[in-house]
Amino acid sequence: MGNFLKLIQNELMKIYCRLSTWVMYAILxxxxxxxxxxxxxxIEDPVNGRxxxxxxxxxxxxxxxxxxxxxxVTGLEHLQREKKINEYRLEHNIPPIETKSLSGFMLATxxxxxxxxxxxxxxxxxxxxxEFKWGTIKLLLIRPVARAKxxxxxxxxxxxxxxxxxxxxxxxxxxxxxFLFGGxxxxxxxxxxxxxxxxxxNIVSHIVNLYSLKSVELLMMMTLSFMVSTVFRSSSLAIGxxxxxxxxxxxxxxxxxxxxxxxxxxxxxxxxxxxxEGTPIVSGMTMTFSIxxxxxxxxxxxxxxxxxxxxxxxxx
Amino acid sequence: xxxxxxxxxxxTKIIKGKKIIDNLSFNxxxxxxxxxxxxxGAGKTTTIxxxxxxxxxxxxxxxxxxxxxxxxFEAAISEIGAIVENPExxxxxxxxxxxxxxxxxxxxxxxxxxxxxxKLVGLSYCIHNKVKTYSLGMRxxxxxxxxxxxxxxxxxxxxxxxxxxxAGIREFRNYVRRLAREEGLAVIVSSHLLAEMELMCDRIxxxxxxxxxxxxxxxxFIHGKKAFMVRFHVDHVENAxxxxxxxxxxxxxxxxxxxxxxxxxxxxxxxxxxxxxEHNVNVYGISxxxxxxxxxxxxxxxxxxxx
Lengths: 316, 307
Hints:
The complex is a heterodimer of chains A (316) and B (307).
Chain A: H1 2-16, H2 19-42, H3 51-68, H4 73-92, H5 102-109, H6 113-134, H7 137-140, H8 147-181, E1 190-194, E2 197-201, H9 203-232, H10 235-255, H11 273-276, H12 287-311
Antiparallel strand pairs in A: 1-2
Chain B: E1 6-15, E2 18-28, E3 33-37, H1 44-51, E4 59-64, E5 67-68, H2 73-77, E6 80-83, H3 95-103, H4 111-120, H5 136-148, E7 154-158, H6 166-183, E8 186-191, H7 194-200, E9 203-208, E10 211-217, H8 218-223, E11 228-234, H9 237-247, E12 254-255, E13 259-264, H10 269-278, E14 283-289, H11 293-301
Parallel strand pairs in B: 3-8, 3-9, 6-7, 7-8
Antiparallel strand pairs in B: 1-2, 1-4, 4-5, 9-10, 11-13, 11-14, 12-13
């Protein structure tokens, strides 16, 4: 075990001694700042009125649309939920979360997890393929360490990189947010709809939940990139392919949404947030189904990585 | 007889149906420098990669101190330090970080040992600089340092003098010889540079098209068994040849402008000399003409003409 920790230490050293890694952190932190300044200074202040009036306006607007009755089922369900939540706010006197608040800001920067995923894909793509590109793989594999262990240390180091980046995103968001907007709004609960009723939830726990759900997508993208990188020994192929799939997948899945088999594809299942807020891509899909599919893909990707790495003749 | 530290037994490697290495067998003993000689593409690097477990063995077995490199990889590879082709290191790390990196992968390499090895290869003064600032020679030394880090009993150097300047090569050669002599390391050096091998190695194995053409000590290799070419520097070359041909009809003497060449056994040399002196031929010098390794190599591998 001590031995394995040293291997991880090696991999982390190779990640963090590179300038490009620090450029990634710089980009992430700048993006948080940009979002912060945009919300603080560019978005107009809300008209000072009673929020209750807005809620009432929303509810009557939802009712008109629902009564028209020309919406698809999923859209209808969505509006009905929104309506219930707005009614709940009026009933219990809970104002909505303002964009120009710490909570609103945290919910905005949560979207930057996609950037973290992107950077993790890059790191995962490089961690194996570049050893081949540099020729250092030869010196790496003539040590008294099993190949499987070396690959596992690389995989673990990538997870650690991703985790640290998520923590950085969270901490910088909350501190920059608190600095720009003050921390008072964190007391307001987040409302969501579950099992036929509206539920209150602590906003911080909601955001942590969003982070962890997105981490599932992160882990899957990372594993895919790691697999492509290990099997094809090309970091650019891994980065290109996985980023392309990541950015185009939601459209592709939307287009193919009417086919039943789409639900068995990887990208129909990666976005678990669908199940918490909103509706699944293919109706009838559940969280359990998606998690099962993800576990299957996860095992396949890792098997491919480990088996090819184990068997490969190092001739480069 | 010493027990071999590296032992190849009928090793064959087939890649995509093509026999790259064909039934190769040889032993390497502690304290010797073994030269592995062959043209580019003869199978040197493939063999070395099999010995260090980078590629699989199709048939036969490779034993490192009795441990099979395939089945007992970790135990076997612990005995080996190697540079495989160019010593490619992590450019963005310092020399020291590179050594730390490899030190973490074995047990029992202390910080002191890292500094000791850095000093040994003469990199102490720049060990904390990034490898990308190193010259080729410095990288070669760093490569040697990582191979020696865990005090292996076998050192494998694939084309080690590539890119070294003549002074560097000489230094390197002396260092390798010292390791073998004083520390009892078995050293395997592969090269296509014949002159280099002649100076560095105790024994030489020639590999040609994946087959071992023979393993010999350097002396045997160059001088053959008993007979060798001897050159007599004399005056009156024509007369002398005539005289010798009459006296020693079994030999054929070749005349040149101021010397005679003949293929002789050692014991015959004084008789020839005596005959010459007795017949008033002045002998200015007698020398043994060693065949260069190059000639021998071409003889063994069969010279392939270009065009």
